[in-house]
Design goal:
There is one protein chain. This protein is α/β, with parallel strands linked by helices. The chain has two domains: 132 residues, P-loop containing nucleotide triphosphate hydrolases (Rossmann fold, 3-Layer(aba) Sandwich), CATH 3.40.50.300; 235 residues, no CATH class. The protein contains 17 helices and twelve strands. It is globular.
Length: 376
């Protein structure tokens, strides 16, 4: 079903074929990586596929020399390795293949753990790879330019159930069930299997505590006290959750000026359906006290998808001062600072101290103008 929605990176990814680079497609489980690759490869001749979730396929690629690998691949023109992070020493395997075949064959590997896939291939594949990241469906992928009314109608559901492909295309009756299944079965799978973390319940408690603080600064030491973990373990777990595409951090923007209040991070979820499943809250927005945080998370992650898919590079922060001034999202592009205040309602504020920064701008983003902010 997900194949009916074309992904934004599909054309770019296809254009990078046969240029002498390994294509790596990373992202959380269930966001549609395999479907995207299969869509691109549909009808192509000379394809050989390996699913590293399958021990037999995994064994074909592990600890093999070049002669063994070329024997396995044969005359195939395209080599597809799914869930490649599970292959021991995958970086070396990919290096052997790309150095031998160059532009003659195309190698594409997907993975749901950037720690195991990207980190283990970064050194061995320097200058030999193109890296793409795929996220749950973006509003630009779901809605066309003339579908603003449909977006308005479905906005509440996006904030409650997120936009994993299977979730978005399911009936409302099935969304909660599927989200709970993903949270229980897939969310920590690579962390538990690959990172020697044996206690999913502790991860769940940590994530639930963070989930209750979206839109707020998070003290890791306080988190540790809440879930009974030492600071070093909390930092390690959060690092794993970031590298497995569960959540990401927004650091504070500050200079040496003393008026800057916060040096704590904020944390947001790549998908709000996962966030709401963790705290078991699928209530309608009119019955919730966290609408502001949901709206903030939604716009920040959608803006991040937009920038990464269109390669509009920017450093992202938030900003807060002692005098109570706050900017929810700061995008730094070269020397320019673009500040965005995210509001669910229509209220407006004017952080004069923010505009004291050279080359700074300020805009309120609300339900009336968010579509232009996300370029829908």
């Amino acid at each position: 079903m997900e194949g009916h929605i074309q992904r934004e990176i599909q054309k770019s990814l296809l254009n990078d074929f046969f240029k002498g680079k390994v294509i790596i497609l990373a992202g959380a489980r269930q966001v549609g990586k395999t479907t995207l690759v299969e869509t691109i490869l549909k009808g192509k001749e000379g394809l050989i596929s390996f699913n590293a979730d399958n021990p037999t396929d995994r064994g074909k690629l592990e600890k093999k020399d070049l002669e063994q690998l070329t024997s396995i691949i044969g005359n195939a023109k395209v080599i597809f390795i799914d869930e490649a992070q599970k292959v021991v020493d995958i970086g070396n395997t990919l290096k052997l293949l790309i150095d031998h075949y160059g532009k003659e064959k195309q190698i594409i590997a997907t993975g749901s753990s950037s720690l195991n896939l990207l980190s283990n291939t970064s050194e061995s594949l320097t200058g030999r790879k193109y890296v793409y990241e795929l996220y749950s469906l973006s509003v630009r992928e779901i809605y066309f330019e003339d579908e603003h009314l449909r977006l308005d109608k479905e906005l509440d559901d996006l904030l409650i159930y997120g936009s994993y492909p299977e979730i978005y295309l399911s009936s409302v009756e099935n969304k909660q069930r599927l989200l709970i299944e993903i949270t229980n079965s897939y969310l920590y799978q690579d962390i538990l299997e690959l990172e020697q973390v044996r206690n999913p319940e502790t991860l769940n408690k940590l994530l639930s505590a963070i989930a209750l603080q979206i839109g707020s600064e998070v003290s890791l030491s306080e988190l540790g006290k809440t879930v009974n973990l030492d600071l070093k373990t909390v930092e390690r777990y959060i690092d794993l959750l970031e590298k497995n595409y569960v959540l990401f951090r927004l650091p504070p923007y500050y200079t040496n000026q003393r008026k800057t209040l916060s040096k704590l991070n904020k944390f947001y979820f790549y998908d709000l359906g996962i966030r709401n499943a963790l705290i078991n809250n699928f209530n309608n927005l009119d019955k919730r006290s966290d609408v502001g945080g949901l709206w903030e998370n939604f716009l920040i992650v959608e803006r991040m998808k937009l920038r990464r898919y269109k390669r509009m590079y920017a450093k992202q922060y938030f900003w807060k001062t002692y005098d109570g001034s706050e900017v929810d999202l700061v995008e730094q592009v070269a020397e320019k600072l673009h500040g965005y205040e995210i509001k669910w309602g229509r209220e407006r504020s004017s952080p004069k101290t923010w505009l004291e920064y050279p080359n700074s701008s300020y805009e309120v983003v609300n339900k009336e103008n968010f579509k232009s902010f996300l370029e829908v």
